[in-house]
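Appendix B, record 7
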Amino acid sequence: QVQLVESGGGLVQAGGSLRLSCAASGRMWSNLAMAWFRRRPEKEREFVAAISWSGGGTKYVDSVKGRFTISRDDANRTVYLQMNNLKPEDTAVYYCAAGLKATGPVLLTTRGYQYWGQGTQVTVSS
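Structure tokens (predicted):
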């Protein structure tokens, strides 16, 4: 079993930065692909970024490429999402997700992840 606890959300002006953190418990960390999804107002949950469980490969949705960076600290079982140059359209609840040995196309979909955090609100004002 894996539990995920997110932190770091908040209110920021457009152009600002935030760093989200997600701490994981359990013994499966080394086999977990980690990702961030978000749910914007009146929209479905969507993929934002993922990092593989082996090799550290990353994937991003086009709208955040060059602005967001996902990384993982294996020693502390934590995954981060550094968000720079934030825009009002980034306003959403951001969710951390973990998928056991997830790889390939499923990394970009909710189907690839068995464990989810409770979500953290990010609000970007214009």
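Remarks on this record: The mean pLDDT is 95. The longest strand covers residues 92-100.
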